[in-house]
Amino acid sequence: MKILAVTACTAGIAHTYIVAEKIQKAAEEMGHQCKVETQGSAGVQNELTAADIKDADVIIFSHDIAIRGTDRFAGKRIVDVPISLAMKQPKSLIATIEKKLAAK
Q1: What is the pLDDT of residues 25-74, one digit of tens each?
Q2: What is the CATH number of domain 2-102?
Q3: Of residues 3, 6, 8, 9, which has the active-site annotation?
């Protein structure tokens, strides 16, 4: 599965980047491809391209503030979760996504 994610937290400092790393690591350990865009205090980093989005099976929005540029994900499967959930249980989040996608 090809997973994309966008992370953003209130301060845009620690949690944005910690969650990006946790999602990336959990996805790869579970055998998936993953790319994560961060929208933090340093601006947008590792920006997802149109090609990334086109090829993605699912997009995870993990945030406590509004994600910028959500219109580029129109028509894609989106999982929208609070940043705390992805921080505490990244593998459980991905396992739940796997089950839901397998059921379709």
Answers
A1: 999 999 999 999 999 988 999 999 999 999 999 999 999 999 999 999 99
A2: 3.40.50.2300
A3: 9
Which residues are CB-contacts of 14 (< 8 A; sequence separation ≥ 6)? none
Structure tokens given for 47: 């920006």
CA gyration radius, the chain: 12
10 pLDDT tier (thresholds 50, 70, 90): confident
Residue pair 26/87 in contact by the 8 Å Cβ criterion: no
Instruction: Tell me if 48 sits within 8 A of 37, measured CB to CB.
Output: yes
Q: Are strands 33-40 and 2-8 parallel, antiparallel or unpaired?
A: parallel
Residue 9 known to be catalytic:
yes
pTM as predicted: 0.95
